[in-house]
């Protein structure tokens, strides 16, 4: 990914923020981190014994209360997308209060950089993906190195050892079809099937999903992946963004839609009777949800408490129902709409295999948007 040009797009809009933060102190708590007791300032709890961990968690809870129990959460999605999850955390730790900041991905990244440069860090935890990891963690060194105990139970392919984050859950990309127009036996089984002339002009493609595009190129290899994408685009798909495509698919405006994540909206539409079927290809691209604890978090104890909870049995067993995503821990319940992945090989998109961000944007737009 690009480590400089991406930032330049939004840097100008935040130049005033740095001046404002310097002038006014950035708010009551910004930059005023509560000191974390030395015994709690560990980099990992993975190797702790049960007794050591119980004592650590007790100390963390006491420290969280002492610092006010606030968690300042940055996420590019609207608050409603994270509230159910955070509310379950607060149910476990009722003294915690949520302060939520949303905005565009690049906007929030630049905000964090600006706040830290001004000596007024505000974010405790950021929910994001490879772009945040590459920019905030690897480039700017703003992420906390911290491994919650639950990460010790993860298989190697799900551990994300090089990420300045914890991956609590993930979602997968699929081909969807209208059951009234396409019998299950005739639905495409692979991405290559979408190049068949019989689908020409009969399927929609979600042009919001750059992550899926990057994941396919990483899994197949650059040249084969680009050739496949160009062949799919040559079959005249209908471009759409967001939930619009699902509504059109259900209404029969096109036969197929991709790439779609088998998450809440898909499940809810199917539960309400929409004639939507889900195809799981032999290899399924998976996008991890990355949760980044900040090195300069104003509320370090509550930040660590959240990261421990994120990887705990308590949350992992609730992921599928609460946010309709797939828990990172194997064996935990998964959403009914994603059950097909159990028969598929998962390929996880990561910071290391995503590729250069600006290059991926240019490739994706030239193939599916500008032609």
Give a concise summary.
The protein has 371 residues and is an alpha/beta fold. The protein is 39% helix and 17% strand. Strands 1, 2, 3, 4, 5, 6, 7, 8, 9, 10 and 11 form an eleven-stranded mixed beta sheet that branches.
Class computed from helices, strands and strand pairing:
alpha/beta
Which shape, going by the Cα principal axes? elongated
Succession of helices and strands: HHHEHEHEHEEHHEHEHEEHHHEEHH
Total E-strand runs: 11
Contiguous low-pLDDT stretches (5 residues minimum) are 1-31
β-sheet strand percentage: 15-25%
Please give the count of helices: 15
Biggest sheet layout = 11 strands, mixed
Please report the distance between the alpha carbons of the first and last residues: 23 Å
Mean pLDDT: 87
Helix content: 25-40%
Radius of gyration: 22 Å
């Amino acid at each position: 990914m690009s480590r400089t040009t991406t930032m330049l797009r939004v840097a100008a809009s935040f130049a005033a923020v740095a001046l404002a933060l310097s002038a006014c102190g950035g708010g009551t708590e910004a930059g005023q981190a509560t000191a974390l007791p030395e015994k709690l300032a560990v980099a990992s709890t993975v190797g702790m014994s049960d007794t050591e961990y119980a004592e650590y968690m007790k100390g963390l809870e006491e420290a969280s209360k002492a610092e006010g129990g606030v968690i300042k959460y940055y996420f590019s999605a609207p608050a409603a997308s994270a509230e159910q999850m955070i509310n379950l955390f607060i149910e476990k730790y009722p003294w915690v209060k949520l302060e939520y900041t949303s905005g565009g991905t690049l906007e929030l990244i630049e905000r964090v950089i600006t706040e830290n440069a001004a000596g007024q860090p505000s974010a405790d935890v950021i929910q994001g993906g490879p772009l945040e990891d590459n920019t905030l963690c690897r480039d700017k060194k703003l992420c906390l190195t911290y491994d919650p105990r639950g990460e010790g139970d993860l298989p190697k392919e799900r551990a994300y050892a090089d990420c300045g984050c914890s991956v609590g859950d993930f979602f997968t990309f699929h081909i969807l079809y209208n059951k009234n127009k396409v019998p299950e036996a005739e639905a495409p089984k692979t991405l290559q099937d979408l190049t068949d002339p019989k689908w020409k002009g009969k399927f929609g493609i979600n042009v919001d999903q750059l992550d899926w595009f990057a994941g396919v190129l990483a899994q197949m290899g650059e040249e084969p992946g680009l050739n496949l994408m160009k062949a799919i685009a040559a079959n005249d798909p209908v471009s759409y963004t967001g939930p619009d495509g699902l509504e059109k698919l259900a209404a029969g405006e096109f036969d197929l839609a991709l790439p779609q994540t088998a998450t809440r909206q898909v499940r809810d539409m199917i539960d309400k009777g929409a004639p939507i079927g889900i195809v799981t290809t032999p290899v399924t691209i998976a996008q991890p949800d990355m949760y980044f604890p900040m090195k300069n978090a104003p509320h370090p104890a509550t930040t660590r408490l959240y990261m421990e909870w994120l990887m705990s049995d308590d949350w992992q067993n609730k992921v599928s129902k609460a946010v309709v995503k797939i828990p990172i821990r194997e064996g935990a319940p998964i959403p009914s709409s994603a059950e097909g992945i159990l028969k598929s090989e998962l390929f996880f998109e990561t910071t290391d295999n995503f590729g250069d961000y600006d290059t991926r944007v240019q490739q994706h737009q030239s193939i599916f948007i500008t032609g």
